[in-house]
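Hi W., the flavin-adenine dinucleotide complex you wanted:
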Amino acid sequence: MHSNLVIIGGGPAASAAALLALDSGLTPTVIYPKKKQIDNKPFQSLYPDIIKLLKLIRCEGPLDASKCGRYSFISINGQKTPLSNYKEIPDVGYHINRYRFDQFLLEEVKKRGGNIIHGNAHHFIFDKAGRISGIFTDEGKEIATDFIIDASGVRRFSGKQLKLEEQYFSPEFIVTTGQVSISPVLQEEQIFEFHTEEKGWHWIVAAENTYTWTKLTLKGQQNSRPPNSLEKYKMVGQITAQNMTWRKFRNLSLPGLALVGDAACVIDPASGQGVHTAILSGIKAVQELLCKKSKSPLILTDYEKWFNAYFEAKCKELANYYKQLGLEPLLLTD
Ligand SMILES: Cc1cc2nc3c(=O)[nH]c(=O)nc-3n(C[C@H](O)[C@H](O)[C@H](O)COP(=O)(O)OP(=O)(O)OC[C@H]3O[C@@H](n4cnc5c(N)ncnc54)[C@H](O)[C@@H]3O)c2cc1C
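Structure:
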């Protein structure tokens, strides 16, 4: 089988890349494992400016489909801070169910004619000159292609396969998240509390009769219990932990390949930017791909430059925020 563009992953980075490619006349093949429906997964929160990106891919529906609650302020150590203070957007943000959000985007990819292959990318195929020329899936499918976008998230398919060099911008962070159930039923209760701790932080979000908590600690200091204020409630679902050390691969663009979203870089969720960065980088990679006139091997040098500058700016922004909050122990000293 041959496809002019292969996209690895079923998250927001992959879908955004696929939708823009489809709108521009390409027919991408998207490879991802079938998702299990887990409805009591901890919520994620998106800033209002996500709408601008969804408009670019003509797909505003996932916010309605996945919305569990909205917020217009964040309470930081007890002090209410309206969203408009951060981003100059006088609006409200969204607490979303990520399964429903991702699923909506994937359905849209299917509706617009994208090829879907369920499974995992297993290894790259190389041509005689040693260049990436295709992908082999764990179900034995072989797809030859002119270009691959890797949106495999923190599983970081290309980084591992090609042993790419990683750069680190923070100490080792672990982020834990879980949910507790609350009753009586909340009626439009707006709770988005961010609390600093000596060497970390936690936030608590209320939506759909639950509190979601998300907690950042230095590696080695994590415990998987909810914050003290939630210990009296009944836990629902699973607690998950993930390495969220700020990091990026040095090379994000190789001949025939670009890395987008978490497959390219990770920054902890206090930046509030994970899904935003995933969608934006998927869009940026496809935008450069579409400008390229030559045949393979294509290399997206402008995309890589853009991503490096973007990531550096995000790290600086978050480091300044941590300094304002007295969280210097979370920053690298040199
Ligand atoms: C605890 C926690 C809380 C967070 N909270 C927020 C938040 O509130 N707001 C926010 O914006 N961000 C948040 N984030 C970050 C956000 O989840 C990620 O940045 C975002 O999901 C990245 O999107 P992505 O498309 O790059 O990767 P993902 O969403 O991880 O998607 C990767 C996809 O690739 C697939 N895949 C993996 N390997 C392969 C393979 N070999 N072959 C085929 N498919 C493969 C996976 O199955 C998945 O479908 C949080 C993260 C954590 C850990």
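The domain at 2-39+98-166+248-330 is CATH 3.50.50.60 (FAD/NAD(P)-binding domain).

W.
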